[in-house]
Design goal:
single chain; mainly beta; 14-stranded antiparallel sheet; seven-stranded mixed sheet; 0% helix
């Protein structure tokens, strides 16, 4: 066995995931709002989508600057949308190009009543909880919310697509699906045309104090497609191509159903069973796995493992509370020797963490909560088996001869996305 060890430290951010909650993390502002309304600007693309450019008719509330088509928000201002936006119901999409400042929270866009209590649609990004929240309203339950565990507050420009085909909602970031959620209704309600009690803002939501939970960062685009649930970011040419394959390993049609998901499609692993995935395609020289996990404090276990019936690992990721480390086990082409890379990074603390495992050619990078733990040269390109007998993939365990598995993960798993070709 050969081992490469890399040492790095990070301060892990934490978040809790709930299905329905109507509170945010942020600061109130006391700037008075402007609520005048004018006309609707709607255009239709060649694909037949009904697009409203929310930035085409806005007034500034507080301090917001505009340079070369990019609005800069500093947490003390917002843009009041002056248009009568067509109402949304069961199928629509929100598109935002946003660079959110690090360690900040705020609304990208929100349509609410004057008080902000009734949120008809709203996208809120929190660095505190490391998630994006989509608020909506139903006729029976009022304001509801679903959460997507992804960190946007890194100062970098991101292309955001929220696609709603009620009761389903999906969030894409930079062309990649980062999460799916089930809402509580198949049709949503909307307050209709702009009025003193039906307000749309970019960079905040309304409140009786004049505005709340304001964005710090930059926005260059904010559109709503009122008639269709888009499945790719419009004008982003890299989406929808044959090389962009994303497999949601927590999709119940993909895994073996050994664990039943709970609210918000969260899987709870009790340390005795994992999730199997059949017919997983073999990896190329480049692949990525994205996880959002909450490992029970003091426990150890595999996040995932591609292996043989005897437990010989082609590639796998193990988190240890004994050594406070995360280890990537792998084989290279032409060899059955087990090799490993160990990172001094601990996530077994009962908190929620985002992990990206990125393999490019013969290098490995582990990113924890947006912080790179280091790029390490592997001994060669990672080997893999072809789906079939003696070729297994599990979340939350590895294979072990004569048993149902070994070294089980204990905790919650919120996201597990597999990109076999990038």
């Amino acid at each position: 066995t050969t081992t490469t060890t890399t040492t790095s430290t990070t301060t892990p951010a934490t978040f809790t995931t709930t299905v329905v909650s109507t509170s945010e993390q942020g600061s109130n502002s006391t700037t008075q709002v402007s609520t005048s309304s004018t006309t609707t600007t709607t255009t239709t693309t060649a694909e037949g989508y009904s697009r409203v450019d929310l930035l085409s008719d806005v007034t500034t509330v507080g301090s917001v600057s505009l340079l070369d088509g990019v609005y800069t928000f500093v947490g003390v201002g917002a843009l009041a949308v002056q248009q009568n936006i067509p109402t949304v119901s069961s199928s629509f999409s929100i598109v935002v190009d946003v660079a959110q400042d690090a360690q900040t929270n705020g609304y990208m866009v929100a349509k609410t009543d004057l008080s902000g209590s009734a949120r008809f649609f709203g996208l809120y990004s929190s660095s505190t909880t490391m998630r994006v929240s989509f608020y909506y309203s139903t006729s029976t339950a009022g304001t509801q919310v679903v959460h997507f565990p992804v960190m946007l507050a890194d100062g970098e420009m991101h292309k955001i697509l929220l696609s709603v085909d009620a009761p389903n909602a999906k969030l894409f970031v930079d062309g990649l699906l980062v999460g799916s959620a089930t809402m509580t209704a198949s049709a949503l309600i909307d307050c209709g045309d702009a009025s003193s009690n039906c307000l749309t803002y970019v960079g905040q939501r309304s409140s009786l104090a004049g505005g709340a939970f304001r964005l710090s960062g930059r926005v260059s685009r904010c559109d709503i497609y009122t008639e269709e649930a888009l499945q790719e970011y419009p004008e982003l040419s890299t989406m929808g191509t044959d090389t962009d394959v994303v497999i949601d390993l927590l999709d119940e049609t993909v895994n073996d159903g050994a664990i039943t998901p709970g609210a918000g499609n969260v899987y709870t692993f009790d340390g005795t069973v994992g999730l199997g995935v059949e017919n997983l395609p073999p990896v190329s020289s480049n692949f990525t796995i994205q996880l959002a996990v909450e490992q029970e404090s003091g426990s150890s276990g595999y996040f995932f493992s591609k292996d043989t019936d005897a437990g010989s690992r082609y590639w796998s990721l193990y988190s240890s509370s004994v050594s406070n480390s995360i280890t990537f086990f792998y084989r290279i082409k032409g060899s059955t020797l087990r090799r490993s890379v160990r990172y001094s990074a601990s996530v077994n603390d009962g908190r929620n963490h985002n992990l990206d495992i990125v393999v490019k050619e013969a290098t490995l990078e582990l990113v924890v909560d947006g912080v790179s733990m280091g790029i390490v040269a592997l001994d060669g390109e990672v080997d893999d088996c072809v789906a079939g007998p003696d070729c297994n993939f599990h979340l939350g365990q590895r294979s072990e001869p004569g048993t149902t598995g070994a070294f089980f993960f204990t905790g919650n798993m919120h996201r597990a996305l597999f990109h076999p070709d990038q």
